[in-house]
Design brief:
The structure holds 2 protein chains of 2 kinds. By secondary structure, chain A is α+β, with helices and mostly antiparallel strands. Chain A is built from 12 helices and 13 strands. Chain B starts with a helix and ends in a 19-residue tail after the last strand. In chain B, a hairpin with a 2-residue loop joins strand 2 and strand 3. The chains are: A alpha+beta, B alpha+beta.
Chain lengths: 310, 158
Amino acid sequence: MISTQANKAIRTYVIRHYGNLIRPCDAVLDSDSKTWVAELKSDYPTIIRDDENPKDRILKFLSLRQLGEVRITQDLAQVEAPTRDECVRGVTTLLKRWREKAENIIISTSADELAKIGMVKDALNPIVMILSDFMREGREVITDAEIRDEPRESRMRQYFQFLTQISLVQRVDEGYRYAPLFAQLRELNKKSDDFKNVLLAYIIKNHYSTIREFFRIWRFERFIHMDTCYYAPSLQAEKMLATRGESLLNRYESWYGPASRMRLRSVLDELVQVRALDRRGAFYYGQEELWQEMLAAKNELPVEISPLRA
Amino acid sequence: MVLNYVSQDLGINIPNLDLNDIRRIVRTQADGTLPYDVARINQKLRPASHRVEFIPSEGNSFHDIEEELEGKRPVIAWILKTVDNIGFYHAVVITHVDKDRLIVGYDDPMFGKQEYPVPSFLNDWEECENNLLIRLSIDRKPPQKELEDFPHDLNAGK
């Protein structure tokens, strides 16, 4: 059996069993199992549109690798391959992972703006409360006795533990006091009107995943997702796109599932208000300064993405 | 694209399906669309004023494409599209063949109207294996009702 026939048989199998975006790599002979093996891949095309010039379409590709393998016996009689559902799951997971990587860049560059959003402050209220207390003149230590008086003491202790782990506070005999990093940030930002925002931005920028995964605070995720809906395609296109609100809402629903359009519109308003996005006429744009930072970080975004292997 | 042609150019009354409906019917997922799933739309077209069907098949020749076009039926071909040295399988609607200039013209859902020299088109088509086409079949007779079009409860309406 020569590889040409094996490749042809595998390509035919792939076309008949998977969507058109899946292709096999060249088959290689596995001498142990005496089968031809071809890895499944996708050079995933994405059409990016600028709503101001809808006829101009930017085509970008994302290389998705290791989506499974098709094995075919040397007599081409038997095929072993993932199901279409498995393949779809693989594609969806890798696309989501790429989006999360874009989201990380967006969070880290927009943290200062996101920290100004009322709902973000509300969601992180216990942290804001602790940090604000340390900002009071002469306030050095929050004692264990004070923490015991808190209605949700164990939750509050988790926040103190978190702030200790990220070096903003430190454990002392009688309770917790602010740590050198806290003092250092205060010194660096003494001209800032709102040091609370600086601290929140620091936490969002560096520890958003703990807030989301451990504390399960998802209330303000909507703002981050909407910001991602604007900036991720722009990053892929390497161009600040003019985008209509309706396009952003549609993209939000397609990426993150159904949501109240009224709420999403208000999320957009708030992102504009804190200058995470800009609105001119019917179109949304990125903020120039944030955009430049994001572009500089763009090389952290993979062009090829494959499943994580243990 | 083809449905627009059927309704607007041929004046056949077909159910109004938007892109999202079509995606759902032909089971487009994150990995794209399977060529044979395109035929799933046939059932949805049954209420049309004529029998309209999409028929996928393999092992076609270039002559088959010409024959379809001579019958004024656009035909969908599965090709390997290459952009910036990156290839992906892609469906295009072939609209004309210019025998003098040796050109194949097609409507591409991504890039709009395109024209390619016949040899280059044939390479792209053959790269996809088995020369896959989806033909459009239009029967001027109204569609015959099938068992499932009748109410399940035979007493209904009595």
